[in-house]
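Lab notes, practical 5.
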Amino acid sequence: MKSFTFSLDISVAEIADGFPGGWPMRQQLILELRDHDKPGDVTAYSSVWYSLGVIGDGLPADQHLSVTVLDTSSGTLPAGWNGYGAFDQNYESHLPYGQSFARILKDVDEMAIVSMRPDSVQGTVIYYNLAIDNIKVSAVPEPASYSMLLAGLGLLGWAARRRVVQQ
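Output from the prediction step:
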C-alpha cells in the first residue's frame, strides 16, 4: 500500500473546562501513529501526528474528518505532519535521529486519537462529551488498479458482445 486515507465521524455534545456545564472550549483532534519498538531520545515511543481539525464550541457538532497520505515511503514528513520522539534546543519536537516517516508507518504499533499535541503539556482538566464513529483506514487506489479495472470491464464487455453475436 503506497497511500491510504484515515477518516472518522465525530459528534460533539460538549467540551468544557473542568466539568459538565463549565466554560465551553475548542480542542484539536489529532491522529498519532506510534512506534513503541523504537523509543525516542527522551520518550517511550516515536510517532508521527497530524491535526485532523478543531472541534468544540461554536463549530458544527457533527463533522467528518480525514487525512490522506499519498506516499508511505517518504523519508520526510508530508505537509501538515509532525514528528515526536526527540527535542531540539528550543524544545520543538521532531523525529529521533535515524527515524523517518516511512519507518514509523512501517512499524506502527498503536493509532491514537487524542486532543492534545504529543509535545505539549495541558494545565487544566477538560470535560468531553462526544462520540466517534466510522473509523476507517482505507487504501487509496493506485493508477495501475484503475487500469486493471478498466481492462477487466473491457474484457467482460467484449465477451458479452461476442456471446450475443454467436447466438
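Observations recorded by the TA: Residues 46 and 99 are 8 Å apart (CA to CA). The chain has a mean pLDDT of 88.
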